[in-house]
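In the design runs reported in the main text, the only information available to the sequence generator was the tokenized backbone. The following block is the verbatim input for one such run; it is reproduced so that readers can re-run the procedure and compare outputs position by position.
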């Protein structure tokens, strides 16, 4: 009798060991497949990163349309679809008016500014050459037309580059435009198509985090538009009062430079200084001082007040992201560095720090005050 019981226990233990080994093999296989799938996804993402950045730009445009429609809700008592349609009509009208006005005014001002800056660069080059410093190299020439059209082969090469760049830019802009419209008119179904890829018990959390990401993008976009408009107007009026030529173009490039934090405003000050140099030392000093004051107020007072609700990343990490994404993906990486950092920060904090590590980073009452 005891031998029978011992044999049954031994068989049970063997079955349990076999089941445990089978479960471990299945777990190891599942882990290996998950790692392989992650590697494949990362490889495909790296190979198609330019397209993914365009898709993200489309999501940003959808967030802009959604923020505009939300802003109209207290004023126009219509449903969301009609408000989005009205926003698109207003956006199209303003874009058309801006293009018509810009085609008449901007080319002339831009040509004037380029001639002035070209002449001042030549003056700087000659001044530096007197000290033995060849800043621009021996191949520098004053006449860009001679550089472009010196031979037929070079002309055709530059024409192909310009046409290819223009077609790529137009195609990317159209993709961003249509993606933004499609995402904005039906955000729920697009969000749910991603939420359904995670476990059912975790879908509510994923949905909440994605909503928080959308809110961060809306706040960032609204803040950027406010900063660009304020900076453009202030610099435009200040340079007009000083008497610089092409003040609107200089103000516009100064406003758009805020898309590149920290580095953009410094770069935008160079054209202003070059244009002010022929007018004499007094306008040059006034232009530099006024631009520095406006940029300091915007960068240290207005900007933080506007963006503190959306982007709380330390400035050093933001600058690192701009440098890395710019080196890897060019101008598009630089332009999208800030929103990518903001959205990535939300994902890391919610999914990794809070859910995986178990830290509670919800703001306390003291933090809010």
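Verbatim output:
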């Amino acid at each position: 009798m005891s031998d029978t019981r011992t044999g049954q226990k031994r068989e049970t233990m063997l079955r349990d060991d076999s089941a445990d080994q089978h479960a471990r093999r299945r777990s190891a296989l599942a882990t290996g497949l998950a790692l392989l799938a992650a590697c494949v996804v990362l490889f495909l993402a790296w190979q198609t990163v330019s397209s993914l950045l365009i898709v993200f730009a489309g999501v940003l445009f959808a967030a802009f349309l959604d923020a505009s429609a939300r802003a109209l809700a207290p004023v126009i008592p219509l449903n969301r679809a009609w408000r989005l349609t009205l926003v698109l009509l207003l956006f199209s009208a303003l874009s058309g008016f801006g293009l018509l006005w810009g085609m008449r005014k901007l080319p002339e001002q831009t040509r004037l500014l380029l001639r002035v800056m070209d002449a001042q660069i030549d003056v700087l080059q000659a001044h530096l050459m007197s000290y033995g410093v060849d800043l621009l190299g021996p191949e520098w020439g004053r006449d860009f037309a001679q550089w472009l059209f010196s031979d037929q082969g070079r002309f055709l090469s530059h024409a192909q580059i310009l046409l290819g760049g223009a077609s790529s830019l137009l195609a990317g802009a159209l993709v961003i435009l249509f993606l933004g419209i499609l995402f904005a008119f039906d955000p729920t179904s697009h969000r749910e198509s991603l939420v359904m890829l995670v476990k059912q018990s975790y879908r509510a959390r994923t949905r909440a985090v994605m909503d928080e990401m959308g809110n961060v993008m809306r706040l960032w976009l609204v803040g950027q538009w406010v900063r660009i408009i304020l900076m453009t107007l202030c610099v435009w009026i200040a340079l007009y009062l000083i008497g610089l030529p092409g003040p609107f173009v200089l103000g516009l490039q100064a406003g758009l430079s805020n898309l590149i934090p920290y580095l953009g405003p410094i770069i935008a000050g160079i054209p202003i200084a070059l244009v002010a140099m022929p007018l004499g030392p007094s306008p040059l000093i006034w232009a530099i001082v006024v631009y520095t004051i406006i940029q300091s107020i915007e960068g240290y007072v207005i900007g933080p007040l506007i963006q503190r609700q959306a982007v709380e990343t330390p400035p050093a990490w933001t600058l690192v992201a701009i440098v890395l994404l710019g080196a890897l993906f060019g101008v598009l990486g630089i332009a999208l560095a800030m929103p990518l950092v903001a959205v990535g920060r939300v994902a890391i904090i919610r999914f990794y720090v809070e859910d995986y590590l178990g830290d509670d980073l919800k703001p306390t009452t003291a933090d809010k005050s």
